Amino acid sequence: MNLNALAESPFSLHISFHKLIEHLEEVAAAQTGPRANYARSILKEVEPFPELRNGITNKDQIINNTEVISHLLENLFPVALTDNEIKAVSIPYQDIIFNQTRRFKSILSSAGEAFNIAFRDYNEHQFYVMGCCIILDEVYGTQFSFTTPLYYDIPTAQGILKHYRILYNADFLELTPTSKAVDLTQDDIELLADNFDNFDLWKEKFPPGSWELRGFGLMSLFDATIESAVSSLKGTLLGGDDIDDSKHEDVESVFRSIYRVPDLRVGFLSFDPDEHSFTVLPFSEQFKSFLLPEEVEAELCSDTLCVHSLSTVVNEKLYFAISDIDKYIATSPTSIMGKRFKEQGINSVILAPVIKNGQMLGIIELVSGFKGKLNSINANQLDVVMPFITDTIDRKVSDMQNRVQAIIQDEYTSIHPSVYWKFKKEANKFLQFKAQHKHYNLKEITFTNVYPLYGQVDIKGSSDTRNNSLQTDLKNQLCAAISLVEKLSVSSGIESLDAVSQRLRSYEIELASALRADTEQQIQQYLEQQVHPIFKQALVLEIHNCPAITKYFEDADKMGDFHLQRRKYETTVAIINERMATMLDKWQVEAQAAHPHYYERFKTDGVEHNLYIGEKIAPTIPFEMEHVHNLRLWQIQVLCEMELEHHFNREILPYPLEVTSLILAFSSPLSIRFRMDEKRFDVDGTYNARFEIVKKRIDKACIKGTTDRITNIGKLTVVYTNHDEEIEYLTYIRFLQSKGMLEDEIEMLEVEDLQGISGLKAIRVKILYDSSLPSKKCYTYQELLQEIDPEEMKYQKASEPNTPVE
Fold first, then answer.
1. 81 near 101, Cβ under 8 Å?
2. Residue 779 gets which letter from DSSP?
3. Mean pLDDT score of the chain, rounded to an integer?
4. Quick count: other Cβ atoms within 10 Å of Cβ 244?
5. Are 590 and 776 in contact (CB under 8 A)?
6. Tens digits of per-residue pLDDT, 41-75?
7. What does the record list as coiled-coil region(s) (predicted)?
8. Looking at residue 200, what is its pLDDT?
9. Coil, helix or strand for 102?
10. Nearest CA to 515 among 572, 553, 473?
11. Which CATH number, 3.40.50.970, 1.10.1760.20, 3.90.550.10, 3.30.450.40, labels domain 245-402?
């Protein structure tokens, strides 16, 4: 019994049976026969209890009069229906329940003593407004009926959550205003209509207890578990992007309610049509597969399913059920599927293909530890939920494909987000013409009048280090091979070993000099074709040098000691490149926020980057030359930061490699064009090609009249062609010197003539290694203008003489 009214209500509640008693009085007075006799007997029984007519005010009055109330309500609660109907006396939208039918009592008893029945998903505010709407509709003739369905969620003794829809009969209730009631005007009603969420307003117009609700209501419940479960599943699947632990539990709870199987679990197996294989779910770690072992990421369909299930689920796209795994294994003893299920304690299974537009997306797996609980008959209950599951999985698969496309675009092509809009515009135009069955040739994507910026952080001496590591590894391998060959020549009796030994020693001598391009290939080829067969023959003959030969082959493996120095070199280059690229990408976020521009980078023996900025890149955003100056200043600072990052972390590298930094200044705007064959942007036009030629040749250039490179460890080099560029970059450098990022000394250099290129100059300045950018934020060109007037720089000649190169 539950007699707890909600905390606040516009009603003053009086549970009364006066209408029913008055009806019985009419029957007793106007009729004769059994009905009148029955009415008179009931009236006689209730006569000693005036509170039943006048109004019950406390819980004890119901408890003490339970039997009398039951007799009074006998016509409304027929004994013949008490085991079938789920019915009780209640007050609409109030937490008051009594005189339940036997079935209702049984349902509550199965839920357990700790269970407290309560409305689902409703709060005090909603119920208060709901009560107010009853008054408005009944008294003021509005149509505000708050008819949102009400539910009770009640668990069974087995823990399965069942959902019951609540229906009310209010024929025995009447409303009467109290002294607290407020007379409402039409303006008040219209104000309430537009202010559902204003709880204070509703309480102002309908103060608590301002209307007397006298009488009783009838509550009837019907089992809406499947309908409610489907609705809940729809909300769970469509309500968010990620299927986390809580959502996975919600989905399983829904299926348990539908199938009334307390231990039912749900799995999913993704289908790859390209390889006709099953894979793990790519978008959720929670929905594991019971068909595919955890350690297996993908498996051919024919290796996962038996012939019958494969044909039913994949080919015919029908449900496949096994009600008894033991019987299935007995009839199909070679089935891997049956054994996998049995190992997991699964005894009945339903496999349901997820189909969208005729294409299979995967398989939903319903499993239970109970035999017979899942079968080919109740498999058809999936029909009501499969549309929602299919739409959700289709959405997830599409989202996954979009992510894959984004990764491909990000990692394998040069379509940067800043220029994506133009590709999208052209693609949309192509699709529009195609929809109209018209031919359209995709136009080339070009951007005119953009300002280029180029920079690089190069690993110094990488070629020499690579050759040295290669020489060291080959020498170690040759020494080991020579030692084994000479020992075998004494003990094995294998012919021609002296000639092999002599050839290996000649390679060893050759390695002492500079490497030729084909030296490694020749040595490896000779070892593979001439030496290794001898060692393998010795292993077969079980000569006493077998352990040494086995060790040799272990060391000759790619992960063995004969590749140790090369691995250390490759690891070092990879670490430097990844660290530099990550830093550059991170700083790019800030630069893009200042003004969108095209950005690309390349990893070689170091990291190179190209930037293009101009009005055509982002035509909807105002463009000024200040944006170009800001980006050039940003570029210098980021290269300094990358140098600092490497400087303070180089000691932990496998090889102590150093880096040098270079910027190519180019003040004239140019055009870039997307080359379809190479899937990347390149400069467009013969004149603009000079910029690309300089980029390709500048990093190995020397100072004019010397053999020293223009780049140097710990220094930033800016290559330029004219006086304006010199003044501009000297302005940036002096500003950053004032901020403690660069040392005071500046070297003004002339660059040697390159093939087809002459007249290049360079500025070189040392980076301060005891500094870093404040709060990891670049200084802007606006901040520079506040401290340095670039106009003054035009009239200054660089006072520092060319510093001799060490």
1. yes
2. P
3. 83
4. 13
5. no
6. 999 999 999 999 988 877 888 888 899 999 999 99
7. 497-529
8. 93
9. helix
10. 473
11. 3.30.450.40
Phi-psi region of 531 (alpha: psi -120 to 50; beta: other; left: phi over 0): alpha
| Residue 221 near residue 165 (C-beta atoms within 8 A) | yes
The share of the chain scoring above pLDDT 70, in percent, equals 88
Q: What is the DSSP letter of 754?
A: B
The answer to whether the predicted template modeling score (pTM) of the entire model surpasses 0.85 is: no
In angstroms, the first-to-last Cα distance of the chain is: 98
Higher-confidence residue of 790 and 141: namely 141
Beta strand pairing status for 2-3 and 606-613?
unpaired
Closest CA to 635 of 704, 581, 686, 584: 584
Q: Give the bridge partners for 148, in sequence order.
A: none
Give the Cα separation of 565 and 578 in Å (integer): 20
Task: Give the contacts of 784 (CB within 8 A, at least 6 positions apart).
Answer: 633, 731, 732, 735, 790
118 close to 6: Cβ distance less than 8 angstroms: no
- How is residue 345 written in tokens? 């304690």
The Cα–Cα gap between 517 and 494 comes to: 33
Closest CA to 498 of 508, 507, 488: 488
pLDDT at 640 over 60: yes
**Smallest Cα–Cα separation from 727: which of 789, 669, 786?**
789
> How many CB atoms sit inside 10 A of residue 139's CB?
14
Q: What are 3's strand-pairing partners? A: 96
The domains of the chain are located at 2-174+188-223, 245-402, 462-561, 569-793
Q: What are phi and psi of 718, to 5 degrees?
A: -115, 120
